[in-house]
Design goal:
12 helices, Rossmann fold, single chain, globular, binds nicotinamide-adenine-dinucleotide, 9-stranded mixed beta sheet, alpha/beta
C-alpha cells in the first residue's frame, strides 16, 4: 500500500487531545478512518474531533483491527492494556505506533520487540520529546561538537504536572499499581532523552525513589525519583518529581557546558524554554536561538506531528523510526532498574537479567527483591512494600 496512510486510533483520552489529534488533523496524507475506545463518552468526543461517522466508532478494538483499509494503529490506552492490543494488531497485519511506556514489564516489552521483528511490521514509540525544538537544538549543538565530548548530563524534571486522565474513564489510574510506576514511569521522556543525548544505551543505574508530596495520601507509587545513570562514556543525573521543584537541563562536556532553562523554572514539556546558552572552556558565553519556538501547546502539538510524519515515512521507506520499540524497552528497564536500586540500595546493571523478578513482572516483582533495611522506598510503603 502507498499514498495516504489510513490509521485507526485505539484509546481516545487526553494524550489524543493535545498530541495525536493535532498531528492527525495536520498531516494531509495520514487519515484517521476508525476509532476504538471502551468508554462511550470518549468515542463521542473523538467522533466530533475527527468528524467521524457512527460506523467508524468501535467499543472493541478487535473490530477496528479487522478493517482491511486500516494500515496502522496508534495504541494510546493506559500501558497495562497495551501489550495484548499490540500483539493483536500484528496478528492483523497492522503497523503500530505505541504510546509510552511500551509495557509495564520488561519481559513483555522484549516479546513485543521480537514480535515486531518477526512480523516485519513497524513498532514505533511515541517518544515525542525528540521533536521539541529545544531538544532538537541541543542535539544539533552536541553533534556539532560545541562542547566536545558529553560527560555529565543533568536533567531537572522536578516540576512535572500531575495531570489526571480523562474524567469519563478513570481519572486516577496513574496513581494505581496498574500504572506500573509513578512520576518516573509517567515521565519516561527524560530517560530516553538522556540516552539520546549521551549517544549510547545505559549500563548501570542507581536511585532514590520516594513519595514526599503525596505523604498524606497513602501513596502506592512514587512522586519523586532521583537517578544516576552510567553510559559507556558519559553519566546522567535525572531529578524527577510531580510538582516538587525546578526544571531545566545542564550538560558538561570536555570543552564547555550548556544550560537550558524554562519560564518560571518549570520543566521540559510543561512550559516555554527561555534560555539556552553555552560557555566554552574559558567561560565565554554564547546564547543560542531555538528555531521554531512557539507556545508550549503548539510545540507539543508540532512534536507529535513530526513524530507521526517520521512514523509514516518509516513505514513507506522500510526504515527504523526515530524511536523504535527497542528504545522503549531500554527506557523501561532504566525506570525499573531505578526502582530496584532504590529498594535494594545498590547499583543495578543494565540490561536487567532475564531471571530478575522485576524483569519478569515489573513493579509486581519488587516484593521478591531483597530490600535494604534503610530503603526510603520501602519506608514509604511504595509498590506494595510494607515498611
Ligand atoms: N507521549 C506523551 O507525551 C504522553 C502524554 C500523556 C499520556 N501518554 C500515554 O498515553 C496513554 C494514555 O494516557 P492518557 O493520559 O491519554 O489517559 P486517559 O485516561 O486520558 O485516556 C485513556 C483512554 O483509553 C481508553 N481505554 C482504556 N482501556 C481501553 C481498551 N482496552 N480499549 C480501548 N480504549 C481503552 C479509555 O476509555 C480512555 O479514553 C498512557 O500510556 C500514557 O502514558 C503519553
Amino acid at each position: 500500500m502507498a499514498g495516504t496512510l489510513k490509521v485507526g486510533l485505539i484509546g481516545c483520552g487526553n494524550v489524543v487531545d493535545y498530541g495525536h489529534r493535532p498531528a492527525l488533523l495536520a498531516l494531509k496524507d495520514v487519515e484517521l478512518v476508525a476509532l476504538a475506545d471502551i468508554t462511550p463518552a470518549r468515542r463521542l468526543i473523538g467522533k466530533a474531533w475527527f468528524r467521524l461517522r457512527e460506523r467508524q466508532l468501535y467499543a472493541d478494538y478487535r473490530q477496528l483491527l479487522a478493517l482491511p483499509e486500516v494500515e496502522a494503529v496508534v495504541v494510546a490506552v493506559p500501558q497495562k492494556f497495551r501489550p495484548r492490543i499490540v500483539l493483536d494488531a500484528f496478528a492483523a497485519g497492522k503497523h503500530v505506533l505505541s504510546e509510552k511506556p511500551l509495557s509495564n514489564v520488561p519481559a513483555v516489552a522484549a516479546q513485543l520487540v521480537a514480535a515486531a521483528r518477526h512480523s516485519g511490521l513497524q513498532l514505533a514509540m511515541t517518544h515525542n520529546y525528540h521533536f521539541l525544538p529545544e531538544y532538537q537544538k541541543l542535539k544539533q549543538l552536541l553533534s556539532q561538537g560545541l562542547i566536545g565530548a558529553v560527560r555529565v548530563l543533568t536533567l531537572h524534571f522536578l516540576g512535572v504536572i500531575d495531570y489526571p486522565g480523562a474524567a469519563e474513564y478513570q481519572a486516577d489510574w496513574r496513581h494505581t499499581l496498574a500504572a506500573g510506576g509513578g512520576v518516573l514511569m509517567d515521565m519516561i521522556h527524560a530517560v530516553y532523552l538522556a540516552e539520546w543525548l549521551a549517544g549510547a544505551p545505559a549500563q548501570q543505574v542507581m536511585a532514590f525513589v520516594d513519595a514526599l508530596q503525596y505523604a498524606g495520601r497513602e501513596p502506592v507509587i512514587e512522586d519523586l525519583a532521583l537517578l544516576q545513570i552510567a553510559f559507556p562514556r558519559a553519566y546522567a543525573a535525572i531529578h524527577m518529581g510531580w510538582g516538587a521543584g525546578v526544571g531545566g537541563l545542564d550538560i558538561s562536556g570536555s570543552d564547555g557546558h550548556i544550560r537550558l532553562r524554562y519560564k518560571q523554572h518549570q520543566s521540559g514539556g510543561f512550559n516555554q524554554p527561555i534560555e539556552l546558552y553555552s560557555v566554552d572552556s574559558d567561560w565565554r558565553r554564547s546564547d543560542h536561538a531555538i528555531p521554531n519556538l512557539d507556545t508550549h501547546e503548539a510545540n507539543i502539538a508540532r512534536s507529535f506531528t513530526q513524530l507521526w510524519a517520521d512514523f509514516r515515512d518509516a513505514i513507506r521507506e522500510g526504515r527504523a523510526p526515530i524511536a523504535p520499540a527497542a528504545a522503549g524497552a531500554r527506557a523501561l528497564e532504566i525506570v525499573l532498574g531505578a526502582y530496584a536500586s532504590a529498594v535494594c540500595g545498590r547499583v543495578i546493571s543494565l540490561p536487567l537479567a532475564a531471571a530478575d523478578p522485576v524483569y519478569q513482572k515489573g513493579i509486581a516483582g519488587i516484593a521478591e527483591l531483597e530490600a535494604w533495611a534503610g530503603s526510603k522506598t520501602k519506608a514509604a510503603g511504595l509498590f506494595g512494600l510494607r515498611a
